[in-house]
Amino acid sequence: MAIPRRLVIGRLRGLAQNQLTFIVCAAIVLVLLGAVIVGLLESALADAQAAPAATDFSTFGNSLWWSVVTILTVGYGDIAPKTALGRVAASVVMISGVIVTSLFTATVASMFTERRLKEARGLQHIRARDHIVICGANSHLEPILEGFARSSDRAALVDVTLVNDLLEDEVQQLLLKYEGLRPKWVKGDFSQEAVLQRANVQQARAALVLASTERHQRTADERTLLATLAIKHIRPEVHVCVELLDAANEGHLRIAQADDVIVTGEHTGFLLSSAAVAPGLPQAVRALMSPSSSSPLMRVPVPPEFVGRSFEDLARYFRVEQTAILIGLITEEEGIPIGEMLSGGSPIDAFIAARFREAGRDIAAESRQKADIVLNPPDSREIRAHDAAVIVGHQAARAG
After folding, report:
1. How far is Cα 172 from Cα 193, in angstroms, rounded to an integer?
2. Torsions phi, psi of 241, nearest 5?
3. How far is CA 347 from CA 136, 228, 230, in A?
4. Helix (H, G, I), strand (E, B) or coil at 49
5. What is the pLDDT of residues 71-85, one digit of tens each?
6. Are 49 and 43 in contact (CB under 8 A)?
7. Which of left, alpha, beta for 299 (phi over 0: left; psi -120 to 50: alpha)?
8. What 3-state DSSP class applies to 243?
């Protein structure tokens, strides 16, 4: 079947628009033309000019070898044209080779320079996988990066991608300080799907959405909601943890399927009152939550051999084998269907339902997973297959 002429022309134009591809194709054509032309001239004119050495070009393989080494190197001199026309053609090939090689080198250097400039400006498309995307920026951003940096010392290295609209100088300082996390930066509004897709959130392990207060304080929680909906629209399986300024908005974020919601300052009252009536308790809480603590609060998997056994057995294992204290269990369970959660009739419920329908998701049948936390359960509590352990212990316990 004949190939349409327009298709051929379109493909050729596409190759021409890709400068590097065009130069590589030009180099290949030049190598082949040089081999054919010089080889034919040397073979045809050798007898007329009595140049027996021209038999070096009697085979196409020899001609191709000469063309390659002449264009890509200075030439070895093992094969050289002897006829006048052959030398003229060879000179044209040499000059063309210098030009093509220079263009190729300049194009590659330009591509790397452009890539570095895009990275510095936050304009590149992230290709990392199983990374953590941090949307927004506030005073908590650096402590979060510090926590990842410390946890990466005892676990697998965490790749981090920042998505915000900070100034380049501010971001570059963070990237340099936490270069061990191999951080990347995407500049833009994190509530926009196009920006999130540049951060490759569709292949991310998790996403953290911070309450960006520097430039958008009035709409911080609204942008957090929009970002959560956008992330879940792109890939519902991404674990999304969000920060809220107003606890009254937590219900909307739960409906939008935020997996974890942290309200800024929600424990401040407890810590202040404890400092007055129970001195030392705030310091204990701080030690449990500090990434630099030798005995931090951690979630670790339950060893498979303990499924079906008692909480007492598991606690004894962690204490004896891991020098850790088991304080509770986390169980993932199916929660309330999303349709029931959106039955309030409020404008925000209608907005969230519309976004789910746009994503083609059945809110009547779909439900969100719920994490059920049980602290200090009875010793007889049976360990289930989907349980995870909450422990206070040494860093090495995480590997267990």
Report:
1. 24
2. -115, 130
3. 25, 17, 18
4. coil
5. 776 666 667 777 778
6. no
7. beta
8. strand
Question: How far are the Cα atoms of 17, 298, 314, 399 from residue 310, in angstroms, in the given order?
Answer: 67, 20, 7, 22
Q: Are strands 132-135 and 206-209 parallel, antiparallel or unpaired?
A: parallel
Could you state, in chain order, the average pLDDT of each consecutive group of 10 residues for the chain (400 residues)?
56 59 81 82 65 63 82 69 79 83 80 71 83 92 86 65 89 87 89 92 94 69 91 91 90 86 88 89 87 83 94 95 92 62 58 61 56 90 92 62
Please state, in angstroms and rounded to a whole number, the distance separating the CA atoms of residues 80 and 74. Answer: 12
3-state secondary structure of 332: strand
**Rounded distance, CA 227 to CA 234, Å?**
11
Dist CA 72 CA 375 (whole Å): 71
Tell me how far CA of residue 119 lies from CA of 115, 116, 175, 344, in angstroms: 6, 5, 11, 45
pLDDT tens by residue, 169-200 = 888 888 888 888 888 999 989 989 999 999 99
Q: Running DSSP on this structure, what letter comes out for residue 379?
A: T
CA pseudo-torsion sign 57, 61, 67, 72: negative
Distances (CA, A) of 296 to 58, 99, 312, 318, 387: 78, 63, 21, 14, 20
Closest C-alpha to 236, from 386, 364, 371, 367: 367
Quick check: helix, strand or coil at residue 256? coil
Query: What is the rounded CA–CA span in Å between residue 304 and residue 400?
Result: 11
**Beta bridge partners of residue 265, listed in sequence order:** none
pLDDT for 1: 47
Contact between 254 and 335 under an 8 Å Cβ cutoff? The reply is: no
Query: Rounded to two decimals, what is the model's pTM?
Result: 0.66
pLDDT, tens digit (0-9, with 9 covering 90-100), for 47-68: 555 555 445 777 788 788 888 8
Which domains can be identified in the chain, with CATH numbers? Answer: 5-121 (1.10.287.70), 126-266 (3.40.50.720), 295-400 (3.30.70.1450)
Q: For residues 142 and 174, give the distance between their C-alpha atoms in angstroms, rounded to a whole number.
A: 8
Q: Which amino acid is at 228?
A: T
Written as six digits, the tokens of 269 are 């009252």
Residue 391: burial class (beta carbons within 10 Å; 0-12, 13-18, 19+): buried
